Amino acid sequence: MMFKRALVMACAMAAVLAMGSLALAADVIKIAVPSPFTGSAAGYGDNVKAGVVMKVEEVNAKGGVNGKKIEAVYFDEQCDPKEAATVGTKIAGDKDLVAIVGHLCSGAHLAALPNYVRVGVAALSPTATNVTISDKGKDAKGQPWSFRNVYLDDFQGTFLADYMLKELNLKKVAVFYENNDYGIGLKDAFVKQAKANGLQVVGEEAYMKGATDFTPQLTKLKGAAPEALFIAGYYAEGALIADQAKKLGINVPKFGADGLDNADYIKLAGPAADDTYLTTPFLAETAGPDAKAFIDAYKAKFKRDVDWMSANAYDAAGMIIEAISKVGPDRAKIREYLAAINTKEKAFKGITGLTYFNDKGDCVKPAYVKMVKGGQFVPAPKQMSN
Amino acid sequence: MTGNKTALKLLGLAALLAFPVLPFSSEYVMHVAVLIMVYAVLAMGLNVLPGFCNLLDLGYVGFYGIGAYTAGILALNHNVSFWLIVPGAIALGALCGMLRGAPTLRLSGDYFAIVTFGFTELVVLFLTNEIWLTRGPLGLPGIPPIALSLEFLGIDWRYDFLSEIPYYYLGLAMVGAVYVVMCRIEDSRLGRAWLAIKEDPLAAASCGINLMAYKTVAFAFSAGVGALAGCFMAQWSMFLAPDVFKFWESFLVLCMIVLGGLGNINGAIVGAVVLIALGEVLRVLLPKLGLPAETRFLVYGLIMILIMRFKPGGFFPTIAATSKKSRLILDLKARLQAERAG
Amino acid sequence: MFEQQLFNGLTLGLIYALIAVGYTMVYGVIELINFAHGEVYMLGAFLCITFIQALGVPLFPAMVLAMACCAGIGVLIDQIAYKPLRKAPRLAALITAIGVSIFLQNIAMIIWGSRPVPFTRSAVPAAFSETAFTLGSVNVSGLQVFIYALTIAMMIGLTLIINKTRIGTAMRALAQNATAAALMGINVNRVISFTFALGSGLGAVAGILVGMYYNTLSATMGYNAGVKAFAAAVLGGIGSVPGAMLGGVVLGVAETLGAGYVSSQYRDGLGYAVMIAVILLRPSGLLGKSVGQKA
Predict the structure, then answer these.
(1) CATH code where residue C150 lies
(2) Does residue C216 belong to the interface with chain A, where contact is any CB pair within 8 Å?
């Protein structure tokens, strides 16, 4: 009896799963967007979703691509490698999904990637910054299947170390990093460059995602009297660090990378956010009319300020859709098209500036510095002269 | 009746063996099936402590992590074959199980539970922070897949597990092996001693059962099985990160055995099937009902509550699986049913 | 610097204690580890800012309202989810608690969004963010004074309720022997509901204080706090209310000093290590009743 029941249950479940993978007749072109939509990273996933929604609606409003509408299919993977691997097989196996915008987290991207490489579908991540990905996205022939239109961790870390010393002439810095791939990658590159430049690192303190109390580490760092605080993490925790530093009387400039770049950082940290310097791929003030239009439309639709994740996701979806319109909904051809964008001249011109890939699928973008002043993001008075 | 049962069992086995070639089985369905098998092994392994010995273990995933990282590091950095790693990892897992168990022998109830929980948090912190060994949060990408090879005999033959199908069959063999071992143990002197400890430690001790020794064996055995599942998972998923071993996973496995019916080996497997498949079914089903991806775990939580509400003892309420085979109990059951009918 | 660390650790510890009390009381009466308690704490904070923002209620009435709502939610959770399982195996209720926790966290995420939300600044009195006084090298902010005053007052109130009132006596009776208590004419279900209401109300206050102190709320905040508070409750001896208070303080101080002086990477680990060490030395927690050693 038991076996019968188990068998019936297994069959029913298999049937439901199979039903899900059956394709409907396609008058739409589907792209997959795997990101965390539940769990503790869901807020970031929502940012990416917003960017993709903007792009897809914009394209469809103009009649779609070659007469076909674009449909983005969202897959929740909770930023969890196990879930991501499962979602990865699902996406790879569904031939209707012609390309992928995602994953959001580097760990999830790495876990899902072997499926994409094996089956042959291009994944363009707007946010995964882990350096390790570069070597893992290639197939046996050495062709990359993983692309990203975001900086790598090491680039921003190095850049900020240079900026602090050369432009602002700061000599002593304390480092706070989130104990994950993003934070560690950023911190390591920063510390390495700082040491090479003679910028003194007076303390390195770790914290876990979701932490709320940073006073022990800050109290300890206060004793070392740093001239600057480098926060290698995301805005949710970064804002708390800035706020608690101010409460403890540490009034020094804060530095961060794209992880802090979100209007919520200012909202959460309040007045403590002032005097924070960030690297960013684009400055709203100096961006072109496309970007301005996007920023306004975004604000009108979602009632919040645009963040870099949404902007990058918007561009990533844009690149995929451009590829589809040029070479058709064909997985291999889309990959070839993306891989061929390999010089500044052939670059994709999006709202985050020019994007082009090297032979590993990583992108090279200029970095700008913006800062928080009076509760607003403004371009920093000093930009790196390079 | 017995003939029917055997036939059903054989049919079930045949269905499982033929599963990969059935028309609806895609890579994705196979992947989910393999994932279920990993959790089935974990559930059977965890079942030993709360199910057989009444010791609530909230940190089982620690051993899973120890096994996985052992396999990941050895395979990636030292190119050790999976078949050599397995016994080593099981031994290491068992050792860690004993180490964790030894000081907790005198604890009971929820104090034991919280120590197991704390232990796992320490394991995960170790995996996160000892970057020199585990690469920490950067993860271990590119772990080689399992391979069959005769190279050590000097024969140039090698088969790499590149798709889900070989993992499916290997997983099936693993689940089968663990299942048979569990059933044998449950029916042995060891299993009966465990059940006695579960029912009443004091009475068990006065019957001459050495609590320390039997509990230590349970710790080692349970941990070893967890490490085995970890090895398999590491070389199957080819990527590890400390995030994979969050304590939610311990709870998930615990939910499986409670949902299946605590202490019941078949229940552990059914629990794994139900909870893993549920997540995937909801992923497919909810968008069809017009609900966004964000509601997936809302429904998941709700279904868990409902199952416990209407089946508080799980799908297969605890009667030791063996007792169902025992002549004595079967007769008793038949008599009771007859009486009730009459 | 040490004094400052210690002081901050105490603040954190008091908040843990406030949550831990809720765990321990529920455990005392029905022997259930109520994993949904962390979620009630989160809901308290969100309800409070919702009252402030949507209805324009000032801070203190909003706190009381949120407390009342959470007390109701606590009772509701018990009635709907746990009550049918009173006679079921203990683990069934535990799994239900986990299910409730998942459910509440996800529903909060759908209602209030998945990104962190700041506490309404304008509602918080300005005096809270200023330094109230300096004691040696320690800066004490107005908010910290408020947290100390409120938590300590609540603990005293709670102790009085448990020790001096009829219903408190009934709670203690229930904790000792539920059957005997019922035979003595105690309305068991009413006492359990009261316990849930009381614990959930305190949890809501803790959530609001944390929201104000750190100026951030998120749907996932209940998870970490819940786990820590549970550890604190066990550390102090689960089922013992003074034990939970002490456990919370010990855990908060251990964690803060650990992060300040030992290693910030192993911060959470140090809390657990202290907890394990205490339990191994005193198998029933700091102030717990020693359970009859079976064998």
Answers:
(1) 1.10.3470
(2) yes
A92 at interface of B, judged by CB pairs closer than 8 A? yes
Tell me, rounded to whole angstroms, the distance of Cα A137 from its chain centroid: 17
Which residue on chain C is closest to B110 by alpha carbon?
C234
β-pair type (A228-232, A172-178): parallel
Q: Is residue C289 part of a domain?
A: no
CB atoms within 10 A of CB B15: 14
DSSP A239-294: HHHHHHHHHTT----EEE-GGG-SHHHHHHHGGGGSSEEEEES--TTTS-HHHHHH
Residues 42-81 of chain B with CB under 8 A from chain C are: 50, 56
Structurally, chain C folds into a number of domains equal to 1
Instruction: Say which residues have a Cβ less than 8 Å from residue C168's Cβ, sequence separation at least 6.
Output: C160, C161, C162
Helices and strands in chain B, H and E counts: 14, 4
Q: How far apart are CA A144 and CA A335, in angstroms?
A: 8
Question: In chain B, what residues touch A75 (CB-CB under 8 Å)?
Answer: 283, 293
Please tell me chain C's helix, strand, coil percentages from 3-state DSSP, rounded to the nearest 5.
75, 5, 20
Contact C216, C116 (CB under 8 A): yes
Residue C249 lies in a domain: yes
Question: Do residues C274 and C225 make contact, with C-beta atoms less than 8 angstroms apart?
Answer: no
- The answer for residues whose C-beta is within 8 angstroms of residue C256's C-beta and 6 or more apart is A213, A215, A216, C5, C6, C8, C9, C12
State chain A's maximal CA–CA distance in angstroms. Answer: 77
CA distance to A168, B162, C270, per residue, from A259 (Å) = 21, 36, 28
C partners (3+ CB pairs within 8 A) are A, B
Task: Compute CA A331 distance to the chain's CA centroid, rounded to the nearest angstrom.
Answer: 23
Q: Which among C113, C216, C259 is the nearest to A216, CB-wise?
A: C259
Q: What is the CA radius of gyration of chain B?
A: 21
Q: Is C293 within the bounds of a domain?
A: no
- The verdict on a CB contact (< 8 Å) between B136 and A3 is no
Residues of C in contact with B110 (CB under 8 A): 27, 33, 234, 238
For residue A368, list its beta bridge partners: A280
Pick the CATH number of A153-280+368-379 from 3.40.50.2300, 3.40.190.150, 3.40.390.10, 3.90.1720.10: 3.40.50.2300
Determine the residue of chain A that is closest to C216 in CA distance: A268
The answer to whether A284 touches A291, Cβ cutoff 8 Å, is: yes
Provide the residue type at B131 as one letter.
I
Q: What is the ipTM of this complex?
A: 0.86
Report domain A26-151+291-355's class: alpha beta
The CATH number of whichever domain residue B303 belongs to comes to 1.10.3470
Q: Which of B15, B273, B280 sits opposite A17 (nearest CB)?
A: B280
Please answer whether residues C31 and C88 qualify as being in contact, where contact means their C-beta atoms are separated by less than 8 angstroms: no
CB atoms within 10 A of CB A17: 23
pLDDT digits (tens), chain C, 295 positions: 788 889 889 999 999 999 999 999 999 888 888 989 999 999 999 999 999 999 989 999 999 999 999 999 999 999 999 999 988 888 889 899 999 999 999 999 999 988 888 888 788 888 887 777 887 778 888 888 999 999 999 999 999 999 999 999 999 999 888 889 999 999 999 999 999 999 999 999 999 999 998 888 999 899 888 888 988 998 888 888 899 999 999 999 998 888 888 888 888 888 888 888 888 888 888 887 755 443 3
Domains of chain A, by residue range, sit at 26-151+291-355, 153-280+368-379
